[in-house]
Amino acid sequence: MKTSAAQSQVTQITSADGTPISVEHIGSGPSLVLVDGAFCGRSFGPARALATTLADSFTVYFYDRRGRGDSGDTRPYSVEREIEDLAAVITHAGGDPYVYGISSGAALALEAAAAGIPMRKLATYEAPYTGIGNVDGTPVDHAGHLNSLLAQNKRGAIVSYFLVKMIGVPAFVPLMLRLMPKIWKSQKDAANTLPNEIAVTNNFTAPTGRFAKITVPTLVMVGGKAAPVLTSAQATTAAAIPQALHRTLEGQTHQVSDAAMAAELRGFFTN
Questions:
Q1: What are the Cα distances from residue 214, in Å, to 122, 124, 211, 238?
Q2: DSSP classification of residue 173
Q3: What dihedral angle (degrees, nearest 10) is formed by the CA atoms of 82, 88, 92, 98?
Q4: Which H or E run includes 88?
Q5: In the predicted structure, residue 266 carries a pLDDT above the cut 80
Q6: Which of 34, 46, 83, 173 has its CA 20 to 30 A from that of 117?
Q7: pLDDT in tens, 228-260
Q8: Rounded Cα distance, 246 and 183, in Å
Q9: Cα separations in angstroms, 90 against 62, 169, 208
Q10: Which pLDDT score is estimated for 38?
């Protein structure tokens, strides 16, 4: 039974390999699944606020990706298992929902669409195909370094490395985050999943050959204030997907506003 827009309901479902996945839904109307980026989950990140904003138009499902929050973390990790997790959420949402993914969640949603997971329509925002897996043409073993730190349980160092060396934020940002205990704890709690992001983003390189297999109607979005490498990546992604739409959200950064994104999703999904 669907809940009203003022209520939400949490359910534990099971992925194909037996991993428990924690899913929450809110609202009423056609089903919409949100797929989070790095660090984020039901209790941390943009999904809850966006779900609440959209709850008057959709039954919105958002979930803890594998290894986060109340979901399990069966090892070894593989992108195929994460696609199965999303497929299980899609089945829970009725089998043919709209899907929206942001950042690495966009990459996961695109991989799922390329694998033939059923979706009514797919919208993505700034999949991070930034090419950081290579520096001056030389591959960089980011995953090996993160896994080495994880083996030493250096979660803070993992977060700092990911943010500074991989995302490219200034070196003082992790120091500032340490002064915000709630945010810093949430990021450290998700540190074990950061090596997964390298795999799900194809080492931060758009797999255009796989994207050519996508048949679901797709909208690829980028913020007007995005870094040039992200802008270029979305253009490349959109060009690889047959008949994909490509849209720039003027004035938006990677932390896109709920209102701006909700307007785009309502327009694309319900048109």
A1: 10, 13, 5, 11
A2: H
A3: 60
A4: helix 79-92
A5: yes
A6: 46
A7: 999 999 999 999 999 999 999 999 999 999 999
A8: 33
A9: 10, 34, 24
A10: 96
**Euclidean distance between CA atoms 1 and 91, whole angstroms:** 15
pLDDT of residue 6: 57
Q: Which residues does residue 21 pair with via DSSP β-bridges, in sequence order?
A: 13
Instruction: List, in sequence order, every beta strand (DSSP E) within the chain.
Output: 8-14, 20-27, 31-35, 59-63, 98-102, 121-125, 134-135, 138-139, 218-223, 245-249
* pLDDT tens for each residue of 153-183: 999 999 999 999 888 889 999 999 999 999 9
Helix (H, G, I), strand (E, B) or coil at 14: strand
CA dist 200 and 256 (Å) reads: 21
Buried-exposed string 168-205: b where 16+ CB fall within 10 A, e elsewhere: eeeeeebeebeeeeeebebbbbbbbbbbbbbbbbbbbe
Output DSSP code: residue 163: I
Q: Whose CA is closest to 190, among 84, 65, 82?
A: 65
Question: Counting runs of H as helices and runs of E as strands, what totals does the chain give?
Answer: 11, 10
DSSP designation for 191 = G
DSSP conformational letter for 196:
H
Name the percent of the chain lying above pLDDT 70: 98
**Phi (first) and psi of residue 205, to 5 degrees:** -130, 125
pLDDT, one tens digit per residue, over 1-46 is 344 445 899 999 999 999 999 999 999 999 999 999 999 999 999 9
